[in-house]
């Protein structure tokens, strides 16, 4: 049966066109249940002995995924009308729904109702598309009731009007919350129900639940409508950007704005106006006389505790708003900060900067998978309701606000890390409303806390699907004669190749060689695992690798981008086995001047898989004259020359406080922690990889000027260097940031004869002033913008790690196409798709970095959990109420508070009685014991007896304490230097 559809469509250019579509109706679309005598047995997916079948409407499928994913929810009918609408409205929800449909245990059956002759309905011109879809769902539900009369059919909808119309048609319809409460044998199911649009869960009138009651005082301004926001942005009165909340001070946020030319400061939660990290927001600048600077204070880890302990009832929101006001001034600092992190106060606290407020949300970025954390302790006077209680949830990340949830499991969840999703945030509520999603495990358990950090950084830990594994050649695998005879592949098994990697490395993706040529020149070779020989475009494995984009390395765990048979065996360039590679070979003069370069697919056989320490030992021991040791020394000579030339060109030699752990093989707990030692062998390998990446970038860009994937490092804005400039000036040094070359030379001169660690500390500070390097498509930038600032390289890309980075996979395909070995995939020629791919790679790369750092922080906390240590430290920042110190031995950076606890509490209390910035500032003057001199980077006690300046040496006692939301954190306290261990006193 054929139906004709006509409708008007608006094109991208604003023109209207009439579209005619043919819509085919069939009788042989099966119901999926064996209870239907007309059904096809091969298509049956629903159980004959189920308690009931559920039919869900679109809003349930969009907003109740946590509920639908519960094990108790089975035998669900997903109508084609619903599936299509979800696909168009929310990609994440659609993917999760598809996963449920494909699950063999969930028994979710798709019925294409719009193409069945008996369930298709024509559109009524008097009804909206939403009403039409609701009617289609009711018609399909009634059809199922006729086909399986012995099976209870329940339609789930949170739309009261839809349920009332269903009742008129004789259909049993329930809200999700009412249905969840009816399953008394699943008490946790009701906790998974997401709230309605108003941010409150289960607020349906027909469920007998009272609403919000009397209208409460608004805490936040209403968000402006999108039409007003669009007009304001166009007129220049509003500014669009992504909100970044200071990780260490949740009351300070920044919105990057191209129209303003610098970050706009949001001072306080009121100014953020219910926006959260990652939201795309519209900001209105305040009058210039209301602009402020970043705070000059350290924010203590417990500053927000009192607000969290307030009455958790809905009626307590006004009191909570008062509690929030006290904490709007501080620049908070976590007890430990990872390399490259800023404290959010990159400007002088006395220097005003553009300050604004959020007036609208352009796009929410709430996590669909939820936030990890724990419930706050039982609050006195909290309201019990429907067998549960309103509780406050505290995210493990301080940059997110508390979330109000209703749960029946408060006592069970008290000592657990849990996941909570946000449902909404109303202007009369201090906190967003949400619902419980799942339990991760006991607080403090290493595996639980690892799951927390993986969730917080959105790391995909799902096992690879059978479709992905099907793309991997079966083991055992070996190079075939066909590979060796391949005319596009060169046999390089005779070369003296070896790899140099960290100890325990199994995914070896690079190897090296050097040899003398008959003409007296040198041949230098970099050989990279030929991953693209096995990873083909358009396959399930390629799609999964593109999504994951990178391997994530934790202290004790690796989450692979590709299946382990590939990463650890088939592609890994292990010693004494033949492997496929993509090789770059240079001919160089003895003084490392390049004569020529060529690229080839190859077969290699590595002669040794060395650790950095083993390679360094061979380089240093002149008594060793075997071929491998001699070649390593030759390669190191070349690397020194290359490194010197890069430095002369302006490349930066920066530093970061990387640490390594010695792990107990039985308990897996850290036995020791210390700074990671970088040897000359590390630098040798680095130079070879840099040379290969630069060379490949030049070749691929020459072949594909518009669609090459490059690695760009933008010049940092001058304001980002201000912390470094102030600190260096206070120490008597001048840092020139006019060019990377001038900066590099300034850093070389920043040396103190009496402090061997001073220069490294300055370089660590310089590292934190850098912008983030990112992947870009060459067609989206002008050639001068390709420049890599840190490397002083006009062109750079990533080619040398395809086992663990998808960017390198893309570049391998570009290089192979440039050499005529393969055809470039069509997707790679599409600028928009390449830009989207680069964006995802950048996001996943950043997430993996943050997860790795969080893993280091976690294991540092585990190491110090049952011990108290006194260690040498350096002051890296001074604040009005404390210091930030760096502990070289353990790679730890964190705050030391100078004001007493009583004085700090006094400051908080004074601030709570005031409203706005002025009251808080006044409290600082009343309570502080120290005076801050920003210019001299010094903080001095009012009696003049204690003085601390940036780079001063100090001694700190390190221990672990537990704070708000059961967050464990390092506590650093100043002690007399005479208490330092004798070994450390000798070193300093």
How would you describe the overall organization of this protein?
With 988 residues, the chain is of the alpha+beta class. The protein has five domains: 2-174, Rossmann fold (3-Layer(aba) Sandwich), CATH 3.40.50; 226-443, OB fold (Dihydrolipoamide Acetyltransferase, E2P) (Beta Barrel); 466-708 and 777-855, no CATH class; 716-770; 867-987, Beta Barrel (OB fold (Dihydrolipoamide Acetyltransferase, E2P)). 30% of the residues lie in helices and 24% in strands. The chain has 29 helices and 41 strands. Strands 5-4-3-6-7 form a five-stranded parallel beta sheet. Strands 10-9-8-11-14 form a five-stranded antiparallel beta sheet. Strands 15-17-18-20-19 form a five-stranded mixed beta barrel. Helix 3 (80-89) packs antiparallel against helix 4, helix 20 (680-703) packs across helix 24 and helix 27 runs antiparallel to helix 28 (916-927). The longest helix has 34 residues, at 831-864. The model is unreliable at 6-10, 197-213, 302-349 and 904-927 (pLDDT under 50).
Number of helices: 29
Shape by Cα distribution: globular
For the record, the count of structural domains works out to 5
Bin the strand percentage: 15-25%
Radius of gyration: 31 Å
What is the helical fraction, as a range of percent?
A: 25-40%
**Cα distance spanning the termini:** 88 Å
Rounded mean pLDDT is 84
The computed structural class is alpha+beta
Uncertain spans, ≥5 residues at pLDDT below 50? Answer: 6-10, 197-213, 302-349, 904-927
Strand order in the sheet with the most strands: 5-4-3-6-7
Major beta sheet, specifics? 5 strands, parallel
**Overall strand count:** 41
Keywords: Exonuclease, Exosome, Hydrolase, Nuclease, Nucleus, RNA-binding, rRNA processing
Protein name: RNB-domain-containing protein
Pfam families: OB_Dis3 (PF17849), PIN_4 (PF13638), RNB (PF00773), Rrp44_CSD1 (PF17216), Rrp44_S1 (PF17215)
Domain RNB: 489-821
């Amino acid at each position: 049966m054929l139906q004709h559809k006509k409708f008007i469509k608006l094109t991208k250019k604003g023109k209207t066109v009439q579209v005619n579509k043919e819509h085919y109706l069939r009788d042989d679309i099966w119901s999926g249940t064996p209870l239907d005598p007309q059904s096809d047995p091969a298509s049956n997916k629903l159980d004959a002995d189920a308690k009931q079948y559920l039919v869900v409407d679109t809003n349930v499928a969009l907003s109740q995924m946590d509920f639908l994913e519960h094990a108790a929810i089975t035998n669900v009918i997903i109508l084609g009308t619903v599936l299509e609408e979800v696909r168009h409205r929310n990609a994440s929800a659609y993917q999760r729904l598809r996963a449920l449909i494909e699950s063999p245990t969930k028994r979710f059956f798709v019925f294409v109702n719009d193409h069945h002759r008996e369930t298709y309905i024509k559109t009524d011109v008097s009804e909206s598309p939403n009403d039409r879809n609701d009617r289609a769902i009711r018609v399909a539900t009634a059809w199922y009731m006729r086909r399986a009369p012995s099976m209870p059919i329940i339609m789930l909808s949170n739309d009261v009007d839809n349920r009332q119309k269903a009742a008129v048609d004789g259909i049993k319809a329930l809200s999700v919350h009412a249905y969840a409460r009816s399953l008394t044998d699943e008490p946790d199911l009701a906790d998974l129900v997401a709230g309605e649009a108003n941010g409150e869960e289960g607020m349906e009138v027909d469920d007998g639940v009272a609403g919000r009651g009397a209208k409460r005082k608004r805490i936040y301004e209403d968000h402006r409508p999108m039409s007003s926001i669009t007009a304001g942005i166009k007129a220049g009165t509003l500014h669009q950007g992504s909100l970044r909340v200071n990780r260490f001070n949740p009351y300070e946020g920044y919105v990057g704005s191209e129209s303003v030319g610098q970050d706009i400061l949001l001072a306080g939660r009121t100014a953020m106006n219910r926006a959260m990290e990652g939201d795309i927001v519209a900001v209105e600048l305040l009058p210039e006389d209301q602009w402020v600077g970043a705070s000059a204070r350290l924010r203590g880890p417990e500053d927000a505790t009192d607000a969290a302990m307030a009455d958790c009832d809905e009626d307590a929101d006004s009191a909570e708003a008062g509690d929030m006001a006290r904490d709007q001034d501080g620049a908070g600092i976590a007890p430990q900060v990872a390399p490259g992190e800023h404290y959010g106060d990159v400007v002088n606290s006395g220097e005003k900067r553009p300050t604004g407020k959020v007036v609208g949300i352009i796009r929410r970025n709430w996590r669909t998978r939820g936030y990890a954390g724990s419930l706050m302790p039982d609050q006195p006077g909290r309201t019990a309701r429907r067998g549960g209680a309103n509780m406050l949830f505290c995210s493990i990340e301080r940059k997110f606000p508390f979330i109000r949830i209703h749960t029946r499991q408060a006592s069970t969840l008290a000592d657990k890390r849990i996941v909570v999703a946000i449902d909404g945030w109303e202007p009369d509520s201090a906190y967003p409303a949400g619902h419980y999603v799942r339990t991760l495990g006991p607080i403090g358990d290493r595996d639980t806390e690892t799951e927390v950090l993986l969730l917080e950084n959105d790391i995909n830990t799902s096992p690879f699907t059978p479709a992905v594994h099907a793309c991997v050649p079966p083991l055992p695998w070996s190079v075939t004669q066909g590979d060796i005879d391949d005319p596009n592949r060169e046999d390089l098994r005779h070369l003296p190749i070896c790899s140099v990697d960290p100890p325990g490395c199994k995914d070896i993706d690079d190897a090296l060689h050097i040899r003398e040529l008959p003409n007296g020149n040198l041949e230098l070779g970099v050989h990279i695992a030929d991953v693209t020989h096995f990873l083909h475009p358009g396959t399930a494995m390629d799609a999964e690798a593109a999504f994951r984009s990178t391997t994530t390395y934790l202290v004790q765990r690796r989450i692979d981008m590709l299946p382990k048979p590939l990463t650890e065996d088939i592609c890994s360039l292990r010693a004494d086995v033949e492997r496929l590679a993509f090789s770059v070979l240079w001919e160089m003069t003895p003084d490392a001047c390049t004569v020529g370069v060529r690229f080839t697919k190859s077969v290699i056989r590595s002669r040794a898989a060395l650790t950095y320490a083993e390679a360094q030992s061979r380089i240093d021991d002149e008594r060793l004259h075997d071929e491998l040791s001699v070649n390593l020394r030759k390669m190191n000579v070349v690397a020194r020359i290359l490194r010197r030339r890069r430095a002369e060109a302006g490349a930066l030699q920066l530093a970061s406080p990387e640490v390594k752990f010695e792990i107990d093989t039985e308990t897996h707990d850290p036995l020791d922690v210390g700074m990671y030692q970088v040897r000359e062998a590390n630098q040798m390998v680095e130079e070879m990889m840099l040379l290969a990446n630069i060379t490949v970038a030049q070749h691929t860009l020459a072949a594909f000027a518009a669609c090459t994937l490059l690695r760009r490092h933008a010049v940092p804005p001058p304001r980002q260097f201000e912390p470094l400039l102030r600190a260096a000036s206070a120490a008597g040094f001048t840092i020139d940031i006019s060019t990377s070359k001038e900066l590099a030379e300034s850093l070389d001169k920043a040396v103190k004869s009496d402090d061997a660690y001073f220069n490294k500390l300055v370089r660590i500070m310089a590292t934190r002033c850098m912008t983030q390097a990112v992947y870009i498509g060459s067609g989206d930038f002008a050639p001068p913008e390709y420049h890599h600032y840190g490397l002083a390289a006009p062109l750079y890309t990533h080619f040398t790690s395809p086992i663990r980075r998808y960017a390198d996979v893309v570049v391998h395909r570009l290089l192979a196409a440039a050499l005529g070995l393969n055809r470039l995939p069509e997707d790679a020629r599409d600028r928009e798709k390449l830009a989207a791919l680069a964006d995802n790679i950048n996001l996943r790369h950043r997430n993996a970095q943050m997860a790795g750092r969080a893993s280091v922080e976690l294991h540092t906390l585990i190491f110090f959990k049952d011990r108290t240590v006194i260690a040498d430290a350096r002051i890296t920042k001074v604040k009005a109420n404390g210091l930030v110190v760096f502990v070289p031995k353990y790679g730890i950076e964190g705050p030391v508070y100078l004001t007493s606890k009583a004085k700090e509490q006094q400051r908080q209390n004074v601030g709570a009685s005031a409203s706005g910035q002025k009251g808080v500032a006044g409290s600082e003057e009343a309570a502080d014991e120290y005076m801050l001199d920003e210019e001299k980077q010094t903080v001095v006690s009012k009696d003049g007896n204690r003085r601390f300046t940036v780079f001063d040496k100090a001694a700190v006692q390190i221990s672990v304490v537990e704070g708000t939301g059961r967050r464990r954190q390092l506590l650093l306290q100043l002690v007399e230097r005479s208490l330092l261990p004798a070994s450390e006193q000798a070193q300093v």
